Amino acid sequence: MKKTGSAVWSGGLKDGKGFISTQSGALDNVAYGFNTRFEDGPGSNPEELIGAAHAACFTMALSGQLGEAGLRATALKTTADVSLEKIDGSYAITAVHLTLVASIPGATDEAFQDAALRAKLGCPVSKLLATEITLDAHLE
After folding, report:
1. Angle, CA 132 vertex, CA 116 and CA 88 arms, to 5°
2. What are the CB-based long-range contacts (under 8 Å, 24+) for 36-45?
């Protein structure tokens, strides 16, 4: 399976602008630029898209892990905070912190934490990212 994302850009780094789209049309010419990445301008940026992708991937992986343990969540809410830092003159994604709040009837904290860890390690996006990935997982 292959899925496609695309971007177009015109202009310089600081004064230019770009647009991001996805094959599915979920994103269709969404604006991005220096001001959306390094300032608080309207639009998107690669780091928030990586965060959304990682949160979605991890949450689906966790649902699978819970199913294997005979558990079914009523709610899994994940946030992925992606850290972009300047190191030695260039930018790098240095960490992703996943925060999960879950409602899982009948789950013990031990079974929940085990499933969450396996999902964090097994999620394809986690495997893609060569950075530190941390997790705070809480049952409600």
Report:
1. 165
2. 37/84, 44/20
Q: Where in the sequence of the chain do the CATH 3.30.300.20 domains occur?
A: 44-137
Helix, coil or strand: residue 119: helix
Q: Which residues contact 125 (CB under 8 A, 6 or more apart)?
A: 50, 53, 54, 57, 58
CB 80 within 8 A of CB 58: yes
CA distance 46 to 53: 10
Cα 20 to Cα 7, 71, 88: the distances in Å are 4, 37, 28
Quote the pTM value: 0.91
CATH code: domain 44-137 is 3.30.300.20
Give the pairing of strands 30-32 and 75-87.
unpaired
Query: Could you list the mean pLDDT of each consecutive 10-residue stretch along the chain, which spans 140 residues?
Result: 94 95 94 91 92 96 97 97 94 94 96 96 92 91
Two tokens at 124?
């394809």
Q: Which residue type is seen at 88?
A: D
